[in-house]
Amino acid sequence: MEILIVLILLIVIGVSIIGRNAAGKAARAIEGDSEGERPANKATNASGGRWERWEASINRPTEGDAKFWRLAEGDHFFQVAGLGFRKTALNKFIASLKADAEQGFPFGLRLERDPTNGFDPNAVKVIGYTTEVSEHIGFVPKEMAREIADALPAETPLAADLKYVFTKPHESGDGVRARMHARLYIPGVKDPWWEGKDAPRPLIWKDD
After folding, report:
1. φ, ψ for residue 96 (rounded to 5)?
2. How many domains does the chain have?
3. DSSP strand E in 15-174: where?
4. Residue 95 covered by a domain
5. CA distance 124 to 149
6. How far apart are CA 185 and CA 60, in angstroms?
7. Does the pLDDT value for residue 112 go beyond 60?
8. Using an 8 Å Cβ cutoff, are 110 and 159 in contact?
9. Residue 81 DSSP code
């Protein structure tokens, strides 16, 4: 009899644990944070609002002072900072961006150092461009800008490509709120720009 009671208790405990695990997975799936695929076109922010995700088509840097751009080694992804402070420029760029992308016109991001910036001498501007506009929309994150300044000569060309744009209507009803994710590029070690200079190999992909 005692053995039967122990077996019943073990079964009840096991069912309870399985139920809690299933409920947890279901909740994470609803939030888009399960072990499976995330929702294709939406991401949920902390306040529960819905963001629409747009994935940019190919826009790798093909212009500027370098001929052979390469992704910077390590954590080359970054989220454009300061978008909320440049709302007018941001909305102009996003409206033109989606129109140009649909028609196959060129678009992308340019990076410009901003040594006279009163808040951060290492600041790097992010310029969003299309065939119609060229707008200063934000900055490279401060931490990445400092790493760039520490690792590369001040005159080293920088570039970026746009990967993802998340947007949702602004609470004021005027334009959108946005998040943008991009990747950092620097000249590859075989690029003519490095002639006569010491290329910082730790910052270059090994396939260069």
Report:
1. -75, -35
2. 2
3. 42-44, 50-55, 69-71, 77-79, 108-113, 124-129, 134-139, 159-169
4. yes
5. 10
6. 9
7. yes
8. yes
9. B
Summarize pLDDT for 83-110 with one digit per residue, the tens: 999 999 999 999 999 888 888 898 999 9
Q: What is the pTM of this model?
A: 0.72
Judgement on whether residues 28 and 65 belong to the same structural domain of the protein: no
The CA-to-CA distance between both ends of the chain, in Å, stands at 73
Write the pLDDT tens digit of every residue in 36-60.
Answer: 333 333 333 434 468 999 998 888 8
Partners of 52 in the β-ladder: 42, 167
Query: Could you tell me the CA-to-CA distances from 124 to 67, 111, 137, 144, 147 in Å, in that order?
Result: 21, 6, 11, 9, 11
Q: Which domain holds residue 182?
A: 42-203
> DSSP per residue over 86-102, as a string?
-HHHHHHHHHHHHHHHH
Q: Measured between alpha carbons, how far is 38 from 64 in angstroms, rounded to an integer?
A: 36
What's the CA gap between 101 and 117, in Å, rounded?
32
175 in a structural domain:
yes
pLDDT at res. 203: 54
Highest mean predicted confidence (pLDDT) among 33-42, 52-61, 69-78, 107-116: 107-116
| Distance from C-alpha of 105 to C-alpha of 94, rounded to nearest angstrom | 14
Q: Are residues 30 and 52 in the same domain?
A: no
3-state secondary structure of 208: coil
Helices (H), the chain: 2-30, 87-103, 142-151
Asked if residue 33 and residue 63 are part of one domain, the reply reads: no
Amino acid in position 71: L
